[in-house]
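[Q] Does anyone have a clean structure-token version of this?
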Amino acid sequence: MNRPKTVCIIGSGPSGLTSCKSALECGLEPTVFEKKLTFGGVWSLDQTIPWDSMNANVSHYTMTFSDFEHPHNQDLYLPHKKVYQYLSSYANHFQLFNHIKFGCTVEKVKQLENDKWLVEWNDSSSKTSESKIFDFLIVGNGMNNKPRLFPMEPLNSFTGHHIYSNQYKSPNDYVGKRVLVVGKSSSGIQIASELCESGVKSVHLYGKGKLNEWAISANNQRIKNILKGKGYERDLIDSGVPIDFIVSVRSNVYKMKDLPEKEFNIEMNKFLKQLSGNNCDEPSYQNDETNFDKPFKILFTGIESYIDNIKDGKIQCLSNHSLINSNGKIIEFLNELDQTKTQIEFDEIIFATGYHLNFSFFEKDILEKLSFDPIDNYVPCLLYKYTISPRVKNLGFIGIFGTPFYSLIELQSRWVNYLFSGVVNLPSEKEMEEGINEINDIRKAKYKTLFPFKDYVLFSDQLAKEINCLPDFEQMSINEPELYDMCYNSVSCSSVFRLTGPFSNEKHALKTIKHFNECFKRINN
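[A] Here you go.
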């Protein structure tokens, strides 16, 4: 009897867990290496990244694997501890923990002449270094490995205290303090918003403004009025509609997909202007309509109060400014529009400047084949559909584009393991090289969207097609119109990709799709 082929998986966050599950599904033998003593990646409870009040900024419907639902009474937006509980339940249900080596840091991976992988790791419990040869390698260690360091030269003389956002735990530590938050990411916005509601003396948010940047509450109270032609005022009585219920409806996405790029950008910017309430009509936060033909950036604020706090002066924005100097607790900024200088006193700085990928375990020749750029978190590697490389065999990457969409990382993990186990075949080398050339164009583009893939639903369907689990929606519309309506005109549900194809589970998929559709109709009514 042939032994199962082995897979090394680096990381036990959502990407690593679903990769392990897919490997087992395919009859492979996975080993997951996790440097921490617990699992979950950014959602782990070891307190290295999530702060006490950190919530997901998309609804739990988007953070659902295709064959494992959340409890039906689950919070719409999950606190980090409930995301951890979901991942724990998923790992227990599919018996993944026996395949995870906790406290084991992968130090080096080397591809051998037979295209297998020699993996070397340190075990923190036994204080030993070990190695093993694996048939395949999956990298799923996430985007949040090493904080992206802020250039500290202008702050060399700052005598206040500073931390990075992975060290931030609670606004209670900043009561009565003057705080500068650096970085207009989702984390920076959430931290600034909760600080200004928690007794701090002042909050300033420093970060470069992006072209066509829209601050949109993850739970939107405007959409129903917009759809009824009543303008974009918030309905304060309404409980709101999750933003993913708006942007993840397959019929809407497919109507837009063939538009020329400039026309697509114009339509989306017009819609996002309404969805954001023209950035709450805040004068300092307006976008120039002459630029609407260029890509847009959505800031999922998680909370509607972000721009309200700017309007009320609780958050002072330092967009279009450069940080140029410091002296004691005084920091000097240059207004790039009128060249005036401003000095502001701060006690604390919180850097929410993002993270870099950690690929230190790869040898230089592999990184060169992957065209790895260590400072580019948008397209860090040139991979076919952001997953595989025609230049490096038996290697797959999961979730290295910072997506909150569990459907995407699950489809990637299924595809890679189906390739490893022979369930599906590799695309032709020509097709992969053409795809990589397109991704290189995206990397070099002057204007960038939120994610390098154009749309979450479209990209999901592209990945599903690769693994032969994309339903034939045209035939479905004829033979099963009710199911078609749920799949095409309701919120995108990852269980659609379990209706057909390898390892499908039609009965469970139908149950989940119906539940999603019922929730979609209830929330949108």
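[Q] Thanks! Anything notable?
[A] The chain has three domains: 6-146+355-468, 149-207+318-351, 213-308.
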